[in-house]
C-alpha cells in the first residue's frame, strides 16, 4: 500500500497520517476510479546513462501485487528504431524471447516471481539511445508501464595534428587539436606553458546528424625560431571521458639548413654542422673525384681521414639537405707529408675568426685561377708541413 500512497499523495507523511485525510483520499479514489485499481501499482524504472560500448541496466520493477503477472514486455523508440518497436517479451509460461529479430546484446536479468523486468544491454551503441517502455500485464486489471530514457555518452577521438609551419614572420596555423564525434560536445583548450602570450587559440565545432559534435581547436602563432621546440598541451574534457585527457605537442617550426660550419676534430676528422628542422641529411663528396673509400670514413656528419696520403688531397664538399632546402660547406685538404698538427690550428683559427667564407675562399680561388704555387706558398708560411682551407659557400 505504501507505494501507491506515495504516488498519489504529494503531502508530507505526517499530515497524511491523520485519519481524516486518509479517509478523504480513499473516498476520492473510489469516486475517481470506481471499478479498477488503475495506477494503483507503481512501476519503477529509472534514467539510464551509458558510455558507448559499455553495458547498461534498464531497470524496471512492479510494486507488490497479489494479481497474477501474465507477461512483461519491452518497447523502444530509439535513434535506430524511431517507430515504436515491440522487441522483447517475457511470458509467465514461456520465458523470455525476442519479438522482432534477435539481438544478443539484451539479456533478461529480472525475475517474474519478484515482478522484476530489468534488462541488461551490452555494447551499447549510439543508435540504442531513446525511450524504453517496460509493461507489466496483470490479470485481471491489465497493463502497467513506465518509461526509461537511455542517454548515450560518446567519448571523442582525440588527435593533435602538426600543421608544418615554415619559418616566417606572419601568423600561421601551427597545429590543430580535434575531439571527434563527442556526445555531449567536448571542451578543447590548449595549455600554452612557456608560449603563453606568443600563441593563441581559436575553437570551432561541427554538429553531426547523429547527435555527436566534433570540436577543433587551432593553435596560431608567428613561426619564429623562438617558439620552436616548445611544448604545449591540448586538454580535452567531456562527460564521456573518465578524466580530462592531455596530449603533449612540441611546437615545430620548419626551416632549411642554415649556414654550414665544418669543425675540425681530433684524429683528422671534420664534422659538418648546420641547423635545420627537420634535421638535415649530410653527404660528403670530393670535387671532381670520388671519395677515396679505403682512406676515409664517413660516419653521419663526420668525415674522417684514415691516412695522410696525398691521394686524399682535394676540395671536399659537405651538403646539408632537408625537404626545405640545401646548403654546402667546403674544406680544402692538402697533405704534403706525414704528421700534421699545426695545420689544424690554422684551420681552427680561421673558423673562430669567422672569416672563413671570405679568406679561405680566396685561397682556393687563387689556387685554381693563378696556379698552385703561389697559393700553396702563402699557406706554407703559416704551417710548414701541410696546408688546408675551409670555405663556406651559400647555395
Ligand atoms: C536523465 O539524465 C540525463 C543526463 O543525466 C538528463 O539530461 C535528463 O534530463 C534526465 N531525464 C530524466 C527524465 O530525468
Ligand atoms: C557520427 O557521425 C559522424 C559524421 O558522420 C561520424 O564521423 C561518427 O563516427 C558518427 N558517430 C557515431 C557514434 O556513429
Automatic annotation (TrEMBL):
GO BP terms, alphabetized: heterophilic cell-cell adhesion via plasma membrane cell adhesion molecules; homophilic cell adhesion via plasma membrane adhesion molecules
Region (Disordered): 372-395
All residue ranges annotated as the Ig-like domain in the record: 34-151, 155-238, 239-322
Entry annotated with the keyword Glycoprotein: yes
Keyword vocabulary terms for this entry: Cell adhesion, Disulfide bond, Glycoprotein, Membrane, Repeat, Signal, Transmembrane, Transmembrane helix
A GO cellular component entry from the record: membrane
Topology of this chain in the membrane: Single-pass membrane protein
Subcellular location: Membrane
SMART domains: IG, IGc2, IGv
Membrane-spanning segments: 12-32, 344-364
One Pfam family linked to the record: V-set
Protein's UniProt keywords contain Membrane: yes
Chief location: membrane
Domain of life: Eukaryota
Signal peptide location: none
SUPFAM superfamilies, alphabetized: Immunoglobulin
UniProt similarity note: Belongs to the nectin family.
Protein name stated in the entry: Nectin-4-like
Organism in which the protein naturally occurs: Seriola lalandi dorsalis
Phylogenetic lineage: Eukaryota, Metazoa, Chordata, Craniata, Vertebrata
Amino acid at each position: 500500500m505504501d507505494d501507491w500512497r506515495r504516488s498519489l499523495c504529494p503531502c508530507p507523511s505526517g499530515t497524511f497520517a491523520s485519519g481524516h485525510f486518509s479517509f478523504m483520499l480513499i473516498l476520492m479514489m473510489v469516486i475517481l476510479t470506481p471499478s479498477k485499481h488503475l495506477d494503483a501499482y507503481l512501476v519503477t524504472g529509472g534514467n539510464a546513462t551509458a558510455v558507448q560500448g559499455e553495458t547498461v541496466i534498464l531497470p524496471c520493477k512492479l510494486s507488490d501485487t497479489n494479481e497474477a503477472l501474465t507477461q512483461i514486455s519491452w518497447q523502444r523508440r530509439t535513434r535506430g528504431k524511431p517507430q515504436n518497436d515491440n522487441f522483447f517479451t517475457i511470458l509467465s509460461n514461456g520465458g523470455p524471447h525476442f519479438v522482432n529479430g534477435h539481438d544478443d546484446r539484451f539479456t533478461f536479468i529480472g525475475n517474474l516471481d519478484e515482478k522484476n523486468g530489468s534488462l541488461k544491454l551490452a555494447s551499447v551503441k549510439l543508435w540504442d539511445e531513446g525511450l524504453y517502455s517496460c509493461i507489466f500485464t496483470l490479470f485481471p486489471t491489465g497493463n502497467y508501464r513506465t518509461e526509461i530514457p537511455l542517454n548515450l555518452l560518446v567519448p571523442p577521438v582525440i588527435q593533435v595534428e602538426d600543421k608544418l609551419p615554415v619559418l616566417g614572420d606572419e601568423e600561421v596555423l601551427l597545429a590543430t587539436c580535434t575531439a571527434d564525434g563527442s556526445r555531449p560536445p567536448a571542451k578543447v583548450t590548449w595549455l600554452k606553458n612557456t608560449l603563453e602570450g606568443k600563441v593563441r587559440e581559436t575553437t570551432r565545432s561541427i554538429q553531426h546528424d547523429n547527435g555527436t559534435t566534433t570540436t577543433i581547436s587551432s593553435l596560431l602563432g608567428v613561426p619564429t625560431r623562438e617558439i620552436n621546440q616548445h611544448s604545449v598541451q591540448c586538454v580535452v574534457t567531456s562527460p564521456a571521458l573518465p578524466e580530462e585527457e592531455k596530449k603533449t605537442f612540441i611546437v615545430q617550426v620548419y626551416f632549411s639548413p642554415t649556414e654550414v660550419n665544418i669543425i675540425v676534430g681530433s684524429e683528422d676528422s671534420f664534422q659538418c654542422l648546420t641547423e635545420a628542422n627537420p634535421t638535415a641529411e649530410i653527404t660528403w663528396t670530393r670535387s671532381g673525384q670520388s671519395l677515396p673509400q679505403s682512406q676515409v670514413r664517413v660516419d653521419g656528419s663526420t668525415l674522417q681521414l684514415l691516412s695522410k696520403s696525398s691521394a686524399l688531397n682535394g676540395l671536399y664538399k659537405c651538403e646539408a639537405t632537408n625537404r626545405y632546402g640545401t646548403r654546402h660547406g667546403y674544406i680544402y685538404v692538402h697533405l704534403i707529408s706525414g704528421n700534421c698538427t699545426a695545420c689544424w690550428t690554422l684551420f681552427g683559427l680561421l673558423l673562430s675568426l669567422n672569416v672563413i667564407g671570405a679568406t679561405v675562399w680566396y685561397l682556393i680561388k687563387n689556387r685554381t685561377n693563378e696556379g698552385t704555387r703561389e697559393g700553396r706558398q702563402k699557406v706554407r708560411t703559416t704551417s710548414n708541413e701541410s696546408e688546408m682551407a675551409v670555405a663556406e659557400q651559400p647555395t
